[in-house]
Design brief:
Strand order of the largest sheet: 1-2
Number of strands: 2
Order of helices and strands: EEHHH
CATH superfamily: Winged helix-like DNA-binding domain superfamily/Winged helix DNA-binding domain
Helix content: 40-55%
Shape: globular
Strand content: 5-15%
CATH topology: Arc Repressor Mutant, subunit A
Distance between the termini: 32 Å
Structural class: mainly alpha
Largest sheet: 2 strands, antiparallel
Number of helices: 3
CATH class: Mainly Alpha
Amino acid sequence: MSYRDIITIEPDKRGGKPCIRRMRITVYDVLGWLAAGMSHAEILDDFPELTEEDIRACLEFAADREHRLVASVGAA
């Protein structure tokens, strides 16, 4: 499954930030927890509504966004 099937953006939810499956948990929340050293298992224990696939979707979203940013800067 593509991250596009998991990551949702709704203008009236969390200020339009990318969220996971229409929940109020943002991609940035998950990336922050990973950057702080939390393991996938710890995140899933703390947030049982999330799945391993949700975490991977956040990473894929971030990688794709970075790729598009670099490509747009290079084209300018």
